[in-house]
């Protein structure tokens, strides 16, 4: 009877009674556990993975051409680039690395000497100098600038978006190189570093004219000093684009691009994909709006000020400001033309590129692996972790890994023979103005959010042959420059090697050269061999299968054809032998 009474009671009432018996502190601990699991996943922490490996980190991945002299003579001597990167244990997250740099940074004290550089359009740029004597003996009386006959290397630094010489990552790099005995000069963007905008021209991600003027000025003033350049974030995009535009005509003898966005269109899609990325988008938009408010008197006259005030993302700001100042129809057009990816093939000076695969701002999807591998003047170093411009290492997080990497690279390059060569080897790459993004006006966004470009050009044997042709040394690119109080885009004439046009030109030349060479293969044999070759090439290129396995596949694939053809071949041979005997 008692059992019947217990079973008749509602199970929910029993559960409720049991729940009241559990102490509140246990609920609190359970809530903290679930919150920790959520935050661990949300901010993409990797502390447990690092704990299992003893915080040894992961090896730095290097991508370069197999015939790259830059790796053999310079990068192979850099222990940092050939070693491992281990994050600070309590900063095992790309978001913690990025946020810690922004809010704390632990930057060393740098006492700059400012030089105001006047531009031809009436604008001004603040050049902040930091020399070895400024960090070693700051108490003595210092002279302005650097002696014109000084042979010490000069490193030009191009900051990121809305950053200046006072940013923590800039100070880390400048202090490190000044300690080495280098003269460091930070080229602040227009309107940043405490200077006003004195013309109707503003900077943007594709604006290379200011960097060109500063580099020419430094080379003219200090002709005996080797000139290096380092670009960071948006500054890296500007630097790589400038190097691609100039080719061998630049005064830069070596450069480094750190955390470059590479393709602004892909980065724009990425930064709006997830909630955590939208936080960065919002933060960058706030910084851009603050920059616009500093120069409201000029900006409100040239751009859509109402749209700038209402902007809640970088894209909104670019739509109301950057696009209007550049006189472009759409924001996507600006992103395509300002991206440096299409200029990588024409870089002719030693260039080190550093990117983190977990960068929360500049996605790994935009990294131009193939373009960097094809150019013999470029070495791409990627780390598994580090965030955006972070890469804090050590228990105290007082140093940045990429600063050590740049230090070793530039010092090794300065002592090598590469900077004395006037012209690097012409590389075999894609045409600098033809990328998958440029060939088609849109990108394909898959269901999982990945961004892939699709092209209008058909793929085939002809396309693969065109990609193997050398690029001309002519200056190519889109330069953004100020015209009549606004910024416009000017597309320079390009000279581009095209095998198809070359064949047509030779064919029309008559006696001056041979026409198109037509080969008529046997239809049956060609129909069998060509598909097999294409399959083997795809396997070798994408799957990286060994040649022994490919040979085995080729034998198995062609064995039915050879087996059916061999009896006919031997019968014909035997018939000829017997006919000769008769």
Automatic annotation (TrEMBL):
Domain of life: Eukaryota
Membrane spanning stretches: 20-43, 549-570
InterPro entries linked to this entry: AB_hydrolase_4_sf, AB_hydrolase_fold, Hydrolase_4
SUPFAM superfamilies (UniProt xref): alpha/beta-Hydrolases
Gene Ontology MF terms: monoacylglycerol lipase activity; short-chain carboxylesterase activity
Annotated region (Disordered), positions in chain: 454-474, 491-514
Domain Serine aminopeptidase S33: 154-366
Keywords: Membrane, Transmembrane, Transmembrane helix
Residue ranges with Polar residues bias: 454-469
Family: Belongs to the AB hydrolase superfamily. AB hydrolase 4 family.
Protein known as: Serine aminopeptidase S33 domain-containing protein
Species this protein is from: Solanum pinnatisectum (tansyleaf nightshade)
């Amino acid at each position: 009877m008692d059992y019947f009474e217990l079973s008749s009671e509602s199970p929910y009432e029993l559960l409720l009674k049991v729940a009241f018996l559990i102490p509140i502190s246990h609920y609190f601990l359970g809530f903290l556990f679930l919150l920790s699991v959520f935050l661990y996943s949300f901010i993409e922490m990797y502390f447990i993975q690092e704990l299992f490996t003893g915080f040894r980190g992961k090896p730095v991945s290097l991508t370069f051409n197999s015939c790259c002299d830059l790796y053999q003579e310079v990068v192979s001597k850099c222990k940092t680039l050939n070693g491992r990167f281990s994050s600070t244990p309590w900063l095992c997250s790309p978001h913690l690395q990025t946020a810690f740099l922004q809010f704390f940074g632990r930057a060393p004290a740098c006492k700059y000497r400012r030089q105001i550089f006047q531009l031809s359009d009436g604008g001004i740029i603040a050049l902040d100098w930091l020399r070895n004597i400024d960090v070693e003996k700051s108490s003595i009386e210092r002279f302005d600038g650097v002696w014109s006959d000084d042979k010490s290397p000069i490193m030009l630094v191009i900051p990121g978006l809305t950053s200046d010489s006072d940013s923590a990552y800039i100070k880390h790099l400048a202090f490190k190189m000044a300690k080495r005995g280098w003269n460091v000069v930070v080229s602040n963007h227009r309107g940043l570093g405490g200077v006003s905008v004195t013309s109707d021209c503003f900077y943007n991600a594709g604006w290379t004219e200011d960097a060109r003027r500063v580099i020419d000025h430094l080379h003219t003033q200090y002709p005996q000093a080797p000139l290096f350049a380092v670009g960071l974030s948006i500054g890296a995009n500007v630097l790589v684009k400038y190097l691609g535009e100039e080719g061998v005509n630049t005064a830069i003898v070596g450069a480094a691009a750190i955390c470059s966005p590479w393709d602004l269109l892909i980065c724009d899609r990425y930064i709006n994909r997830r909630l955590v990325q939208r936080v960065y988008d919002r933060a960058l938009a706030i910084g851009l709006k603050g920059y616009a408010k500093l120069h409201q008197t000029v900006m409100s006259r040239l751009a859509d000020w109402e749209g700038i005030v209402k902007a809640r993302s970088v894209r909104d700001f670019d739509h109301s400001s950057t696009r209007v100042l550049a006189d472009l129809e759409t924001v996507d057009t600006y992103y395509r033309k300002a991206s440096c990816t299409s200029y990588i093939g024409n870089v002719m000076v030693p260039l080190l590129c550093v990117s983190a695969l977990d960068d929360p701002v500049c996605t790994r999807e935009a990294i131009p692996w193939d373009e960097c591998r094809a150019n013999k003047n470029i070495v791409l170093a990627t780390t598994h972790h580090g965030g955006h411009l972070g890469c804090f290492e050590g228990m105290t997080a007082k140093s940045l890994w990429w600063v050590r990497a740049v230090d070793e690279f530039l010092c090794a390059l300065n002592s090598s023979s590469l900077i004395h060569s006037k012209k690097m080897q012409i590389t075999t790459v894609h045409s600098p103005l033809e990328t998958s993004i440029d060939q088609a006006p849109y990108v394909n966004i898959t269901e999982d959010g990945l961004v892939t470009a699709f092209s209008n050009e058909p793929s085939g044997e002809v396309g693969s042959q065109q990609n193997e042709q050398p690029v001309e040394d002519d200056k190519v690119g889109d330069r953004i420059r100020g015209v009549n109080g606004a910024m416009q885009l000017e597309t320079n004439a390009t000279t581009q090697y095209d095998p198809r046009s070359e064949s047509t030109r030779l064919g029309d030349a008559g006696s001056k050269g041979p026409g198109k060479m037509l080969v008529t293969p046997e239809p049956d044999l060609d129909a069998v061999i060509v598909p097999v070759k294409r399959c083997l090439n795809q396997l070798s290129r994408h799957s990286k299968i060994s040649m022994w396995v490919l040979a085995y596949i080729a034998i198995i694939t062609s064995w039915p054809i050879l087996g059916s053809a061999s009896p006919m071949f031997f019968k014909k041979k035997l018939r000829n032998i017997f006919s000769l005997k008769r």
